[in-house]
C-alpha cells in the first residue's frame, strides 16, 4: 500500500509540473503578443508622430521589449 501512495504522489508532482509548464507557456505567449502588438502599433506611426512622442524608429524594438517583458 505504501508503494501506491508514493506513486500517486509522483503523479501529482508530475501533474503540477505539467500545469506549471503550461502556465509558463501561456504567459510567454501573452507577453510575445504584447511585444508584437506594440511593434505593430509603433511601426504604423509616422516619423513625425514618433518624433512628437520622443521616439526614434531605432528605439521601437527596445520599447516593445520593455513593454512586454519589463526589461
TrEMBL record:
<protein>
    <submittedName>
        <fullName>DUF1127 domain-containing protein</fullName>
    </submittedName>
</protein>
<dbReference type="InterPro" id="IPR009506">
    <property type="entry name" value="YjiS-like"/>
</dbReference>
<feature type="domain" description="YjiS-like">
    <location>
        <begin position="28"/>
        <end position="61"/>
    </location>
</feature>
<dbReference type="Pfam" id="PF06568">
    <property type="entry name" value="YjiS-like"/>
</dbReference>
Amino acid at each position: 500500500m505504501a508503494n501506491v501512495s508514493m506513486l500517486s504522489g509522483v503523479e501529482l508532482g508530475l501533474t503540477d509540473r505539467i500545469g506549471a509548464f503550461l502556465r509558463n507557456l501561456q504567459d510567454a505567449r501573452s507577453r510575445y503578443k504584447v511585444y508584437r502588438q506594440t511593434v505593430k502599433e509603433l511601426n504604423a506611426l509616422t516619423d513625425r508622430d514618433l518624433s512628437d512622442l520622443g521616439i526614434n524608429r531605432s528605439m521601437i524594438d527596445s520599447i516593445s521589449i520593455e513593454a512586454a517583458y519589463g526589461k
